[in-house]
Amino acid sequence: xxxxxxKQICEADMQTMLREPVASIDLMERASAAxxxxxxxxxxASGGIFRCGISRRVVVFAGKGNxxxxxxxxxxMLSEKFCVSSVCLxxxxxxxxxxxxxxxxxxxxxxxxxxSELPEDFAEACRRDxxxxxxxxxxxxxxxxxxxxxxDAIRYVNALGCPVISLDMPSGLxxxxxGPACGAAHGKGEPAVVKADVTLTLEFPKLSLMLPSTGxxxxxxxxxxxxxxxxxxxxxxxxxxxxxxxxxxxxFPRRPDFAHKGNFxxxxxxxxxxxxxxxxxxxxxGALRSGCGLVTAHIPECAVPVxxxxxxxxxxxxxxxxxxxxxxxxxxxxxxxxxGCGLRQSPETVKAVGDLLGCGIPxxxxxxxxxxxxxxxxxxxxxxxxxxxxxHVGEFVRLVAVAVGSGFISEEDLQEWALPGCGLVxxxxxxxxxxxxxxxxxxxxxxxxxxLKGAHTMTCTPDGRIIFNxxxxxxxxxxxxxxxxxxxxxxxxxRGLSAEQAAVAGVWHHxxxxxxxxxxxxxxxxxxSDILDNIRI
Length: 537
Fold this sequence. Notes:
By secondary structure, the chain is of the alpha/beta class.
């Protein structure tokens, strides 16, 4: 599914109203109904989301525009089950027609307050009663710093300390991260942006919700469809997408009944070093869960007993050194190679990685393979086309620094691959938009797929497309999670998926496994081996 810009979203709303046709107030009602159903479900089981027990009290903060209209409609719908109050930022005559109509539709059991006239003890009462706040102050279309009543209301909501559900966008956050609010997120001052626990965004996620510094305001993110015109969305140009379950399912045709292991590829995992056998265990395990036919583990001699005990389904090829020092024999039999997990950076391994880059087989490069490339600028030009690179942010920043410093990437190249409207990007990777431009540029320059890992892992293709992931949770931020992903992606590549498909599907299934693990073990207690145990393709 495409991710549209704020301007395109407004056009999609207008085209939906024209083509169905549907009145603006009725489209708002449709969106509000979807929001109310989700909010009601969350409130009924809020102990797992907000850790405050089931809440029966809701306060809706509503602005004067359409986002405020959504909030007031949601307040009306929730009032059938919950005790609901509304806090309006302006009087009805100052509201847009749709917002005013929903204010007039509020039933008598919804207490309504004007923000400028709130009782002095209102905040304390909200905390005492464990209120859940619904943020409907501002939606898409924010430009620049929010001031005046809206800014005051945003700061008031943040100061309450109550759980917050934002409708469509956390109020004050621009749809695309190009305003002062985003600069403030980098330490340039406290921005007037609601800090939500949950954001329920409509139809598709917005770019600001996908990136670390701005997405941090959104909390947990859920996308709710409201039936905007599909033909118009399909006609909109965009290089940004998010992956959905049906997209991933199409990548996996039914396994033939008379198939054998030779039909599903043979992957080689080069992993581990003395003291890092665990990385080999996790990455080889990820490959074994991919559905590929055969998995060979090229590991140091000292790690052989561990791998054979934990993964008897894997073939073991022992490196005579305590590290990766030589390529295994009969190298051409492998359909794909994954390398880097737990390798460390001994001189022997640095040389062996250089030899590996010249092998001509699609590679999945992670961890120390990437760090070694960053330490040897000439290795950048040896990365085989069609490879997949899976760095976390720290590894990626190092790669970009050496790429720019060695002339492999110029600052003009970075600007060429910057998203339209984001302004000048710097080479020091100081903000999210610079990293987006660099990931697109790096993918193009290496003719490879770059997987920049994070909360909404971003996969960049050589032609400049960006595909964000929507599965996963913070409990996956544990050592070894990336090793599982590298093995899973390499296995998918070996079984015949394209580099893009292997990256996108691997990231999606890896995140889904993390969600299953969190449901059983909890986000705090789960670890990488739990992710491995919960992969289901």
